[in-house]
Inverse folding.
């Protein structure tokens, strides 16, 4: 796991467990150095990514910790950020 | 009886009474001045207007139980048993008898306050040809306010193959729209404000079409939703405005988080996003401290007793500095000062006598070059409540650079139960993502109404200052000093569409189809609807042009146009100036 590419929230979520443990998928943002080409898209698909990236450098995915581990090691991945839960903004 | 003298509403109520007795009157009691007897000795009665001869003296009708409140005049009011309508209508001095109706809080009170009807009428606008996209709790597709105008619902919470932008959830159209439900009610209310087609509580742009994303509120999925809406609108070759009445405080509060970046990059000519500023104006969720080189400081925060399982602190400071972070519990126990960790996992857990604390201190965040630390304070036993009391965040600046540290406190329900106390608490920089997206229009709330009559006829009042920015509206600016919010719009107390699958408090219901709510959530669809009108007029407007139009049409009371205030933004929008 290249922890230098993970944000603080994602590091905290993964905790001190050994990298690649089989836990439930995490929703993440993936920021790449350039829009993924065919090889990168195939790699992402292998990791279970669904959805059309369509030439984007910033996109979302639902990945297991093991997949995050593999992805963080890719040179074309700039960083990975954990998706957070928001809430409606009526004043209750 | 001379039925031709009775108004249609009164005739209808009378017919129901004749067919079904007191029970038949009940369905009219919420909107008309009729008083069913419901088993009491008193007869069914009604409140009416009476058009009559100016000088007619009706004293002799008192024997029939007919009370007419004014001794003279061509239009008077009266109170009488239903069965006495016979006698009253037969009186040749009476020209007409009209039912009295309940007049309720109207969304148009808000709309009228900011001259929306005038703007629409003068410019012949209603939002036609524009897509209003909403990412929220869901929409009631059967509500009459939206009939025939919901193009699609991407329900991210249902199982399915998803859409191009995300392989999850189910896309619904046509007759299948009803598979999606809004059990929360927030999304339907928001949609009603932006684009409800309702004669009593209409929305700002009732001619627009709707693309709705029912979300699970993960910011990654919200981001996918924004992309989906803009893609659908592009396929239709129509401009679109997206409404995001949602938010949180997990981000850097400077627009560099990924959701804010996606919003800014996806926005452009004919693609506008409107976001709520947040409702933490009364909550001390932001703390700030400044540390010179080699200096130490503390920030006190309070966790309520026996209330939450986990408290989180989200801290940010310039990447030129380097801090060591430790936490002191209410019992006085303290974690080891933790520096920035550049190798391996940057998370350490500390089991103290009265708490478990997890501290994460990675190196600078590549998105903005700043250092980000995260603290999680929990009970020692999993599932138990975190220790209540005063905690301290202890920061030591181990570098030669000054560090200004901003920290936001969040509880495990995404709420505001954890607060800063002492000198570090700051009533500023409380606009998190997506409200902090540089490319979005960020909306503060203004109070246009503080009283309403609920479904049970009880008058309800809230303690907000009428005609002022709502006190709960979150303050800017952003952490990088960008001026946010942009503008203010009516956000309290707003009546709009009620989802039949939701269960609001009866005190907030006006009738079976409308309820009242408040928040920057309500101000945002007001602006989104206004943007839809602007896009109908000029489909190529980009975010900067829309922002400039709105800011130029906005004003803070007693201040010059163009004055910025961290709570008001550039002020309350007046649509007549658009």
């Amino acid at each position: 796991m290249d922890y230098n590419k993970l944000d603080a929230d994602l590091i905290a979520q993964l905790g001190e467990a050994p990298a690649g443990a089989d836990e439930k998928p995490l929703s993440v943002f993936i920021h790449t150095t350039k829009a993924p080409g065919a090889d990168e898209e195939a790699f992402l698909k292998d990791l279970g990514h669904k959805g059309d990236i369509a030439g984007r450098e910033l996109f979302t995915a639902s990945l297991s910790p093991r997949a995050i581990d593999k992805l963080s090691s890719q040179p074309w991945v700039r960083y990975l950020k954990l998706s957070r839960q928001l809430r409606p903004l009526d004043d209750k | 009886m001379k039925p031709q003298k009775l108004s249609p509403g009164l005739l209808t109520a009378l017919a129901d009474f004749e067919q079904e007795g007191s029970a038949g009157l009940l369905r009219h009691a919420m909107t008309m001045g009729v008083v069913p007897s419901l088993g009491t000795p008193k007869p069914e009665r009604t409140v009416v207007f009476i058009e009559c001869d100016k000088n007619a003296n009706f004293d002799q009708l008192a024997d029939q139980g007919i009370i007419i409140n004014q001794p003279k005049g061509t239009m008077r009011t009266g109170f009488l048993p239903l069965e006495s309508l016979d006698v009253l209508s037969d009186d040749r001095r009476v020209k007409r008898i009209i039912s009295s109706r309940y007049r309720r809080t109207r969304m148009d009170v808000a709309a009228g306050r900011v001259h929306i009807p005038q703007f629409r009428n003068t410019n012949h606008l209603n939002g036609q040809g524009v897509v209003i996209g909403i990412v929220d709790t869901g929409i009631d597709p059967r509500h009459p306010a939206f009939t025939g105008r919901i193009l699609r619902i991407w329900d991210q919470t249902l199982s399915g193959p998803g859409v191009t932008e995300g392989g999850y959830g189910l896309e619904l159209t046509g007759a299948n729209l009803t598979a999606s439900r809004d059990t929360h009610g927030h999304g339907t209310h928001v949609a009603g404000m932006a684009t409800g087609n309702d004669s009593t509580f209409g929305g700002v742009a009732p001619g627009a079409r709707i693309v709705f994303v029912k979300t699970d509120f993960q910011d990654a999925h919200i981001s996918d939703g924004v992309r989906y809406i803009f893609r659908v609108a592009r396929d239709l070759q129509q401009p679109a405005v997206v409404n995001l009445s949602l938010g949180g405080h997990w981000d850097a509060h400077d627009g560099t988080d990924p959701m804010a970046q996606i919003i800014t990059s996806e926005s452009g000519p004919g693609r506008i996003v409107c976001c709520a500023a947040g409702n933490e104006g009364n909550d001390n969720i932001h703390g700030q401290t400044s540390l010179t080189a080699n200096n130490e400081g503390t920030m006190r925060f309070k966790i309520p007793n026996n209330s939450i399982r986990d408290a989180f602190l989200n801290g940010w400071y310039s990447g030129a500095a380097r801090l060591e972070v430790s936490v002191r519990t209410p019992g006085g126990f303290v974690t080891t000062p933790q520096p920035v960790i550049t190798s391996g996992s940057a998370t350490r857990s500390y089991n103290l006598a009265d708490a478990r604390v997890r501290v994460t201190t990675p190196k600078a965040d590549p998105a903005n070059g700043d250092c980000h630390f995260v603290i999680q304070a929990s009970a020692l036993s999993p599932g138990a409540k975190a220790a209540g009391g005063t905690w301290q965040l202890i920061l030591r600046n181990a570098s030669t650079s000054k560090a200004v540290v901003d920290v936001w406190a969040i509880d495990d329900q995404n709420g505001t139960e954890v607060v800063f106390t002492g000198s570090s608490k700051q009533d500023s920089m409380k606009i998190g993502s997506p409200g902090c997206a540089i490319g979005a229009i960020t909306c503060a709330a203004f109070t246009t109404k503080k009283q309403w009559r609920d479904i049970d006829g009880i008058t309800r009042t809230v303690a907000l200052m009428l005609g002022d920015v709502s006190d709960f509206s979150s303050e800017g600016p952003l952490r990088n000093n960008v001026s946010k919010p942009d503008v203010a719009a009516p956000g309290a107390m707003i009546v709009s569409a009620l989802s039949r699958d939701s269960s609001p408090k009866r005190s907030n219901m006006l009738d079976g189809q409308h309820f009242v709510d408040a928040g920057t959530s309500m101000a945002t669809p007001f602006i989104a609807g206004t943007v839809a009108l602007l896009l109908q007029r000029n489909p190529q407007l980009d975010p900067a042009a829309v922002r400039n139009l709105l800011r130029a049409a906005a004003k803070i009371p007693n201040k010059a146009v163009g004055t910025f205030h961290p709570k008001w933004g550039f002020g309350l929008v007046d649509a007549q100036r658009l």
About this structure: Residues 102-108 of chain B have pLDDT under 50 and may be disordered.
